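ok so i was messing around last nite and threw this chain in just to see what happens. nothing serious, just curious
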Amino acid sequence: MIYNIIKDVKIDFSSSIVGFEHLKYFKVEQIDASSPFWMLQSEEDAGIGFVVVSPFEVYPDYEFKLSDEIIEVLRIEQPEQVAVYTIVTMKSKFTHSTINLVAPIVINISTGMARQFILNHSNYPVNAPLFPLQSEGE
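result:
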């Protein structure tokens, strides 16, 4: 399980989280053992954290290609080193919450190096429904 590997790792975003460039270090905290959601908590500002989820949990067909630059910066050598998350935008009615598929978070679980990056020319929405099947039925 990825959490057991990165739970004690200081994640180094090098100021790449959009809108929170002043923060560099985060840690991943498990919200609940049976939940697909995680907390990405700032180590520099206890008041800042993001609920994240693997986009593949919600959209199994989600895919993108990492640029050579990201692979080099994160020192990725094997696909098994990579964990991908998206930030959840919480809504007052949780079932209306969304995830940002345009700006995934990529973490090298071996080194703790991470980046949020923008998928240029993406057909994915910034505010994709967190519960797409429920959204279709409403």
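not much to say yet. The radius of gyration is 15 Å.
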